[in-house]
Each structure stands twice: as structure tokens, then as C-alpha cells.
Amino acid sequence: MKLYFSPGACSLSPHIVAHELGLPLTIDKISNKRTSDDRDFWQINPKGYVPVLELDDGEVLTEGTAIVQYLADQKPEAGLAPPNGTLARYRLQEMLGYINSELHKSYSPLFTPKTPAETREERIEYLRKRYGFIEQTLAGKAYLFGDQFTVADAYLFTVTNWARLVKLDLADFPNLLAFQARVAARPAVQAAMAAEGLIKRA
Questions:
Q1: Which of 1, 96, 103, 148 has the fewest CB atoms in 10 Å of its CB?
Q2: Which domains does the chain have, with CATH numbers?
Q3: For a pLDDT cut of 90, what percent of the chain falls above it?
Q4: 158 and 165 in contact (C-beta within 8 Å)?
């Protein structure tokens, strides 16, 4: 399998999941909508953004929330996603949807220099409200669903890493900050971040 990524973008989430599962994965860094061998990325994903997972048979899977579940289902015994058809799986999808729509997309305008200051302030305030729910969810837990690390944790960690880039102060969310530190220390997370050049290799 091949993962098309951009360093530190939402594609870090499936990258972490692949490392957690020990799945063989090649990575291809996208720069200016070109692959590492100078192919037009729009031809690979007409949506124009990462992540993209290219399967061994040539099938292409897009959308991070779908990709992480696909990867988790390759090794269900690892427990990164509950079995399909169970309420626990729908709870996972519920959380992935929340992270995707309420957190991930709320960050987007904060990365655009042309976004008016008023809009930026509104988005920051909105994110703080949405992180309030996450802070409550993490109370007394190591991860979103207890002691078991899941694909939702990889996604939350990835998105929340953007806070410092947009100057979103998370000091009021101690459970969230402890979660970020806990996830950052995982060997698979360190390996994925090092492979993307986000941290130095140990």
C-alpha cells in the first residue's frame, strides 16, 4: 500500500494507524499538487487533497475517516476499531465524524492568511467550545474510549497538533493536553512523525 501525505496534515492520522498496526506502507510526499516522482496529484485524487491510500490492486481510497477504518480492519485483533456491526463501532464512527466536522474543518480558515480577523476569532472560540466536549470525554481516561487506543485517538491527536500553529491556547483543557502528551510518546506515533520530518529520529 502507498499513502500520499503532506507533513503534519490530516494524513498523519492514517500514517500513525499503519505504524500502530505494523502494516507495510510506502509513503509519497505531495508538494504543490505533485507526487515525489512529479505526477499530477489531481489525477490520483480529483478532490485534490490528502490523505490517499493506494491499495496493492490499484484501488484508491480517499477520506481519512474511511482510510483509518480500512487499515484497522486489516488487523482487527489489534483493537484499533471495534468489530463492524457493533454499537461500539458506531460510537467510533460518531467520534470520527465529530472530529472531522467540528474540529478538523473549523481549523481550515485559520490556515488561510486572507481570513478576516473577526472570522478567525469566531473560529477560535468555536473550537474552544467543541474541545470542551472532548475535555469532558477524556476525564478519567487515557484515550477517548478508555484504555484502548483507537483510530479516533490518532485523528484527534493529529488535528489538535495544529493548535499551536494557529495560536489556539489549550491551557484550559488539561485532560486534552495530557492526552496529547500520552499519544505523542507512543512509539508508532514517534515513527510516523519522524518519517514525515516532524521530529528527529531517535
A1: 148
A2: 2-78+188-195 (3.40.30.10), 87-186 (1.20.1050.10)
A3: 99
A4: no
